[in-house]
Amino acid sequence: MNSARAPRHPHLRAVVDVLESPRFSAVLATVSIGTVLLTHAVRSMIGWPGLIAALATLAVMAGAVLYVRRDQFEWLGILPVTLLAFVGWSIVSTLWSQYQWTTVSGVLYQVVVGLLAVFVAIGRDLIQIVRAFGDVFRLVLGVSLAVEILSGIIFDVPIKFLGVLGNIAIGGPIQGLMGSRNMLGLITLIAVITFAVESGTRSVRRETTIASLVLAGVVFVLTRSPVASFAGLVVALAAVALLLIRRTPAERRQGTQIGFGILAVVAAAVAYFARGPIVGLFNAGGELQVRLSLWRQTWALTQLHFTEGWGWAGSWRPDVLPFLAIRTTNGRIPTSALDAYIDVWFQLGLIGLVIFVAFLGLALTRSWIVASNRRNVAHVWPALVLVALAFVSAAESAILTEWGWFLFVVCAVKAAQELSWRRGLRRTEVG
Known about the structure:
Helix content is 71%, strand content 0%. The protein is mostly helical. It is found in: Membrane.
């Protein structure tokens, strides 16, 4: 910290020294990642008040670290304009929201999680971020598998407060600490990406990488999640394409990018017209019917506030209208539209959807360009994570809240750090 700004009181100076410590930032980043990833488990054990207190405490400490280290960061262009626009539109929706207090609490929750993501993104370099996520993923997957073994094999009873059904003895599906098989499957998929990048950067021992991938493979299979399985195929294809692009000589790389882009559009069109067989292949028929019914109900309500939406809520509140009126065909009370794009349109209207698609599209484009042109393998991580989140958003709304929003903001901010038009504009003006 600048000596002119250093506090004179010894106790306050000691606090500042701790906040400036790289070790404190590393621990705070890892704890923040773990808490956000395990919000379902934390909420199940200590309730909403406990979770909110934990996140608020972490956010205050993260804000304090960013403040005392403010001279160490290049703030221009560090936050994507589209991120600010999306959060801003969520805040503005309070003015016409049909449930204003729900919107206020939803926005505050979104901002707190977003602040923690910004702290992780700008307070740690990319390899450190990948390593921190890798450590947390190993913990989450290991404990999830242990809980399932306890529930399904040793005690043979469901652990209801965690949402664990104890199906591991019959080969799944398992839910672990994430509350549902799809959420556990998605987290496991992102964990596989993380472990692979760790291996590529040689930041962990080979034995650790092998053990981590085996653990992730076992958990992934046991989730029996059709959503995660389909997303895994898409991510695998994207990883192959990215690997080929990275190995292409620089003078031919742009043409290769365009070729893969055309191929992706054609593949998307084929997948759309062949969606029936694809759904059958991944055994997603039952889940698809549930989603179709939910989407129809949500779309009918969206028409009533087509442009501006009903107001931001984040996760749905089943005791508040209009969420109270929506039910799934399997009798469950939905907490989202199970489609991020429909969900955003429903809550923030067409304007919000345009901002969200621009935010996601720009973050994905930036991260893909960086991953294609930078030699460091760590740059592949944000690109593939955003591919997974973008694809899964057609079947889940995870990207809008908690761990999905956290990952989204981390990747978007890291991509903006590498390719910011505002920084480029300033360099041009200075030059």
